[in-house]
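Example (one chain per record):
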Amino acid sequence: MALIAIFSYLFSSCVVYQAFAGKNSTVIKEVSIESRCESTGGFKSVNIIWKPLHKDFSNLTTYRVSYCTRGSTCVGQYQLGCTLNTSDSLQKELLQCSIIAKDLFPFQFYFKVEIQSSDGVHFISKTKACRLLTNTRCTIPQNLTATATGKKALSVTWKPPLFMGQLASYLCFKILYAPAHAKKNEILEFSTNTFHHTISDLSPYTAYTLYIQCGFADCVGGWGLLSRPVTVRTNEEAPAKAPEFRNWSISKTSRDKRDVTVVWKLPPPNTWNGVPNGFNLDFWQLSLGENGSLTPLPNSSRHLHVGDGNATKATLQGLSLFAYYQTQISMCTAEGCGPSSEPFAFPGERKPSTTPTHQPSDNIVFIWAGIVVGPIVLVAVPIGLICAWRNRQDRYVEYFDISYK
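Predicted structure:
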């Protein structure tokens, strides 16, 4: 009886073990399987490709691919990706099945290939990483637009690229922009879950051409094609540089007044910062000091606005004929006027003297004439008188002699 009891106990234990083992009796073996992942466009699915083992093992029944997105913490977190019956692919050199990528991160995920045999042996490959960035390119962002939001800023907006699905919020974007005349683009890369960005530190009233393309998180790869270009101009600002005076001339004079025409050269166009709509000229009279210095005469400043943005000359009217003047000029746009030029000076006419300038020289002539002619007169007059008296005496004697005879 004792032996029967012991045998019964062992038998019942074995049944319990078999019942447990029936649930967990699979033998797990790790094998080396050549495998890789290959992403389809837009991350809609990922193909897992591997080299089959049925040439070496005739009793294999099912392939299964499991994946995990938790990186090194994937223990116990693998999910079923896809399955494949070996009987349907015995003649193929490579096998594959697809995982729908709706919950895969755009960085990478981890997968392993599992193979079940008919005798209960479970073969599992080593875990491999699938880096999607190296196998897929982002599609083109849609509806790129740009709007000037200031004198030096543009607001850029776009819509998500097609076929990116839930991964759109993980994308990286690259904006390429440059002035229309430039040969090299500036590049701005950024990751964002919104679809707008502001570009600052631009040049005022400058046309910029922009493109956009997208890549994957952290901007490490997967760049797609460039979008179509968009061109927009920043807003106007006051000019950055003043015109430069070239010369001046008198256009009209009166007894004590004159009109003066000044001519200037426009600054380089890239400093206009807008469309010129006029010029401001300030001019004032200078006072000559005792030491020859010229200083502005108080309360003599006047202002002239030229309402033609293409003008290169202006006439300053009613200036004193004999005074020195200075003038400055600035260029204006709809946003205001820029800096003033360096003062430009022009002299007045020479003032005539109130004392006749010929009198001192005439007096000198008269003095010298008196000095030279005076002695001559003093000598010549007595000689002339003596000669005249002797002539008279000679005529008298001659007359007397004739009468006597």
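Caption: The chain is about 15% helix and 40% strand.
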